[in-house]
RNA sequence: GGCGGCAUAGCCAAGUGGUAAGGCAGGGGCCUGCAAAGCCUUUAUCCCCAGUUCGAAUCUGGGUGCCGCCUCCA
């Protein structure tokens, strides 16, 4: 059974057939760098990271390119506000982007082209469009003649005539470029320089590129005429991706991308999270601040990842307190499972664990089920269900071991389960750093002190002095020591 | 107004013709001096109506509600 994915272009799931066997050329529309990334960005890049990791796990060689838009009105406005420059603003937020993505364990792209580094390619493409009669210059601007591209609207499924009815009110008057356009639907490929704004020399005079053209130019520069998968947020379908298609395909005569994939939006109270609505939470806001709903602890980046992957990527995802809480708790379960080997391997006489763990047996049922789920348009909620089954088993056995019992599950089975969980979690980018208890910095009372207190409590309990017994338990609890009274009068303890 | 999508337990979410995965939260039980932790166990007939079918959450038609895009947007 092959991998199938939903292609926005055909509006149906299709088997993945790449141009070259086992090679995937993938381009993802990145961010405009004028602010910190919010949860909408987090979702988008987590989703595409998982797609990429899964394809790699399935044996594809993936080349992944993602751009930074570093020329833009909003960046300029931000620069003015901060008495800074466009370069400084974009540099700052590009660095912030890298920091945020690293925390979310998103693999770095193979390349990060920037608009400011792609001027040659952009100008070349505009020239070619001009030569083909698809574009025209107008007072220092250059526009794309939308009506000349007969396939216009094929991605978003709209017809120019139908759009006109609803859009006419806005397109006409409010747009300052409207007077230069031959048609309201035409869009800018190149914009004439305004005073005091960064500008580049060109045959049309000093100016800067429009937004859509950079992606067309970058894809062409890095990959050639066609790629396999083009991704981005659902809000980019129109006009951004539609325009990319118009620009690229008019010149090359070939499909810009075989498959188009779009992720659903993150919602707040049922409405899209967006800059313009002002209802956004940045990634760092969420991860850096202790949250009352989490007992004043911070939200784990991996829990954010889990939160995102618990929804199918094309559906809207509601961001709520309850969702945060659920994700955090869920993550603890997965993490317990991931740490099982490090915590209990020695106890089970496992061999020393090499840094590169062996692969789980490919024919295992869990792997099979996971693959079936993910092969069906990256069904991560179903894939996660597999992880939970594995993690629960490990967690349960870990608890039994921790509480002094003896598991009746063969050590070898637990080892395979653990390898399997780690491998599949890795495909989803979910990792828990090896936390070997003995290596952790020990704070609070020493083991001897604790044992002494337990002995004192024990005698208090035997003489029915429960007040003293409970007091000792409470004091240790306050120092992060959890006492566990086991059947048979034995009391063990763990550091929390 | 046009185009597209969604509607499954308290919340999130799989399932696309054969009598409802998983997570979170909750209930019950075991254990305990009490507790914590743990273990076991439990919780839905799938928005409404009408069809097709031996059989539908799953197909068809009609409603209702919500969301996205049509302007910068992941």
TrEMBL record:
GO BP of this protein: cysteinyl-tRNA aminoacylation
GO terms, molecular function: ATP binding; cysteine-tRNA ligase activity; zinc ion binding
InterPro entries on file: Cys-tRNA-ligase (IPR015803), Cys-tRNA-synt_Ia_DALR (IPR015273), Cys-tRNA/MSH_ligase (IPR024909), CysS_C (IPR056411), Rossmann-like_a/b/a_fold (IPR014729), tRNA-synt_1_cat_dom (IPR032678), tRNAsynth_Ia_anticodon-bd (IPR009080)
Location of the motif 'KMSKS' region: 272-276
Keyword Plastid: no
Gene3D superfamilies on file: Cysteine-tRNA ligase, C-terminal anti-codon recognition domain, HUPs
Motif mapping: 'HIGH' region: 31-41
Keyword Cytoplasm: yes
Subcellular location: Cytoplasm
Entry cofactors: Zn(2+)
EC number(s) on file: 6.1.1.16
Limits of the Cysteinyl-tRNA synthetase class Ia DALR domain: 369-438
Top-level EC class: ligase
Binding-site positions, ATP: 275
HAMAP family recorded: Cys_tRNA_synth
Stored PANTHER family: CYSTEINE--TRNA LIGASE, CYTOPLASMIC, CYSTEINYL-TRNA SYNTHETASE
NCBIfam families: cysS
Name used for this protein in its record: Cysteine--tRNA ligase
Source organism of this protein record: Lyngbya confervoides BDU141951
């Amino acid at each position: 059974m092959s991998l199938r994915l939903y292609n926005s272009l055909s509006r149906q799931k299709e088997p993945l057939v790449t141009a070259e066997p086992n090679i995937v050329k993938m381009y993802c529309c990145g961010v405009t760098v004028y602010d910190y990334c919010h949860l909408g960005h987090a979702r988008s890049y987590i989703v595409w990271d998982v797609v990429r990791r899964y394809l790699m796990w399935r044996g594809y060689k993936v080349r992944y390119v993602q751009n930074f838009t570093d020329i833009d009105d909003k960046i300029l406005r931000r620069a003015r506000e901060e008495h800074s420059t466009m370069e400084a603003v974009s540099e700052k937020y590009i660095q912030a982007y890298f920091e945020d993505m690293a925390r979310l364990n998103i693999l770095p792209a193979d390349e990060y082209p920037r608009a400011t580094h792609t001027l040659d390619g952009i100008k070349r493409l505009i020239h070619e469009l001009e030569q083909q009669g698809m574009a025209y210059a107008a007072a220092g601007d250059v526009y794309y003649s939308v009506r000349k591209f007969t396939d216009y609207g094929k991605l978003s499924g709209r017809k120019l005539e139908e759009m006109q009815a609803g859009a006419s009110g806005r397109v006409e008057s409010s747009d300052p470029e409207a007077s230069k356009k031959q048609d309201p639907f035409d869009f800018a490929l190149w914009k004439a320089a305004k005073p005091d704004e960064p500008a580049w020399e060109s045959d049309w005079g000093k100016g800067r590129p429009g937004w859509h053209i950079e992606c067309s130019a970058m894809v062409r520069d890095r990959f050639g005429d066609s790629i396999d998968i083009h991704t981005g947020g659902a809000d980019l379908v129109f006009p951004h991706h539609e325009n990319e298609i118009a620009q690229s395909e008019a010149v090359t005569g070939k499909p810009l991308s075989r498959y188009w994939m779009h992720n659903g939006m993150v919602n707040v109270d049922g409405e899209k999270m967006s800059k313009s609505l002002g209802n956004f939470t940045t990634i760092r806001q969420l991860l850096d601040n202790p949250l009352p709903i989490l007992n004043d602890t911070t939200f784990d980046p991996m829990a954010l990842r889990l939160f995102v992957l618990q929804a199918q990527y094309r559906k809207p995802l509601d961001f709520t307190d309850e969702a945060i809480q659920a994700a955090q708790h869920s993550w603890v379960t997965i993490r317990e499972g991931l740490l099982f080997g490090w915590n209990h391997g020695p106890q089970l006489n496992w061999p020393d664990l090499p840094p590169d763990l062996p692969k789980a047996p490919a024919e295992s049922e869990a792997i099979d089920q996971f693959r079936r789920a993910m092969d069906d348009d990256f069904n991560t909620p179903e894939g996660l269900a597999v992880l939970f089954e594995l993690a629960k088993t490990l967690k349960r056995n870990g608890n039994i071991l921790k509480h002094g019992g003896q598991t009746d599950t063969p050590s070898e089975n637990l080892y395979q389960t653990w390898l399997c969980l780690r491998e599949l979690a890795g495909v989803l980018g979910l990792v828990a750093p090896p936390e070997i208890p003995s290596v952790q910095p020990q704070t609070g009372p020493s083991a001897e002190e604790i044992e002494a207190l337990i002995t004192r409590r024990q005698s208090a309990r035997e003489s029915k002095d429960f007040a003293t017994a409970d007091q000792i338990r409470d004091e240790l609890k306050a120092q992060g020591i959890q006492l566990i009274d086991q059947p048979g009068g034995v009391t063990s303890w763990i550091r929390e």
